[in-house]
Write a structure and sequence with these properties.
This protein has 132 residues and is of the alpha+beta class. It is built from three helices and three strands, in the order E-E-H-E-H-H. Strands 1-2-3 form a three-stranded antiparallel beta sheet. Helix 2 crosses helix 3. It is flat. The mean pLDDT is 84.
Length: 132
């Protein structure tokens, strides 16, 4: 039996960057990259494709945050322009977010592959690629 929960596929999760700063991160897998690349080509055209792609990936990965503030100490809303500005200003944060997004996608792919393998192994008798 394969159990597929569409709510869990690519579900964002909260991670702590440092005490008082949390970021909700969504994974970036191949399908997400393909979809964002198409959107970047449509929005940015050939000249701005890479810049647009970077922005779209940032905005996909970061869904929300806590503890990121303006200079006056007010909570900075997690908006698309703020995501671009904050991650551009703090490269270490962008690298951290990107790493978590990639790891999440890899773990989900591995889990799906394991589930598929386990469903095949649980059937009685030899598998089509095995001899009796």
């Amino acid at each position: 039996m394969l159990i597929f929960d569409p709510q869990e596929v690519n579900a964002p999760r909260w991670f702590t960057f440092q005490p008082g700063v949390r970021v909700m991160i969504a994974p970036v897998n191949r399908q997400v990259r393909r979809d964002l690349r198409k959107k970047a080509m449509a929005e940015g055209g050939p000249d701005l494709h890479e810049q647009t792609m970077d922005s779209l990936i940032r905005r996909h990965m970061v869904r929300d945050w806590e503890g990121i503030c303006s200079p006056d100490g007010a909570a900075l809303p997690c908006t698309p322009p703020n995501i671009d500005a904050v991650l551009a200003a703090f490269g270490v944060l962008e690298d951290w977010v990107s790493g978590h997004a990639a790891t999440m996608a890899e773990n989900e792919a591995r889990s799906r592959a394991d589930a598929l393998k386990n469903s095949r192994d649980s059937h009685d008798g030899p598998q089509p690629d095995q001899k009796a």
